[in-house]
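Lecture 7 notes: from sequence to structure.
We start with the chain below.
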Amino acid sequence: MQKLFLFARKIVRQLVRKLITWLPRNKRFKVYRSFVDCNPAPSQRLVLKIAETKEELEACFSLLHDAYVDSGFMKPDASGMRLTIYHALPTTTTLCAKYDGKVVGTISLIRESELGVPMQQIFDLTAVREKEGNIAEASALAVHPKLERLGAPSCSR
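Predicted structure tokens for the same chain:
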């Protein structure tokens, strides 16, 4: 019975996704935003900050490594960390989410440098570069598996 319920739920979700794509763009995004409920006053146990110390950076890269290995995006590395050449550049800022003092989430903001940005290896950014402004990529996102399954303390879907 539970398998039937899960199958039906999956079908309904797929149908809803298809229906949403038929909406005009502004309505579509309004619907997507309605699915997210963010608490404007998250728990004081949650701290969002720039990773500044060696320990914070190592915790971010370790969390990222585990998330990428679990998702099949990479094979385990002996260091237990995932970092790229972009992380060594002054144009990259690594952010961390700490809950009760422990790093539970990370994301890196990579501003364009002499190396460009990672996505340009896959996408042609010519049209983007023709527009005014700077290019940056949000990359290396990971959330601790316990928070991923339960819903983050400050947001839930």
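Points to note: Confidence is low (pLDDT under 50) at residues 150-157. The chain is about 35% helix and 20% strand.
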